[in-house]
Amino acid sequence: MSFSSLPNALSILRIILTVPVALTLLNHQYFLAMVLFFVAGITDALDGWIAKRYAFQTRLGSILDPVADKLLLVSSFIVLYIIGLLPLWLLALIFLRDLMIVSGTVGSFMGNGHAKNILLTPSKLSKINTALQITLVLFLVTVQLYPALSSWATIFFIIVATSTVLSGADYIWIWTEKAISQEKKN
What we know:
Number of strands: 0
CATH class: Mainly Alpha
Structural class: mainly alpha
Shape: globular
Oligomer: single chain
Mean pLDDT: 90
Largest sheet: none
Strand content: under 5%
CATH topology: Four Helix Bundle (Hemerythrin (Met), subunit A)
Order of helices and strands: HHHHHH
Helix content: over 70%
């Protein structure tokens, strides 16, 4: 494996870590789940940094990274809901935003004849939202180890709900601007 493929390998590692993270959460092995999820979170930061720093950005990487994020986060949130640590309303909000983004991305690729040359790039608000969602998962697992922190859960839920809505609205704004710009060109 060449150094240039390291960012994609880190994204694939994050995809692979999804299963053990989910299983450790389901089995209430919170410390191990926290360690695995933290490692997965680090791979998220590293893959993008390495790709940008060394100009290793590829179309495959621009697809693998958000897919890895969605798989890890959505599966973690589903399990956290199943074991009673995440409210259904927040799970639904996160799921609907992700569904909207996936649908919008697929729609924009289908409508763009040059899609094979486009790198997927998350918005700045989306990056902040992903970091907050990762922090929420780590927080909810940490609360299982240190229950005294549980009084902060509602605040975290509100922060993540707000960032989720703002990030979704940001994508709608970006797509609307692109559509208007495209119409002006035609």
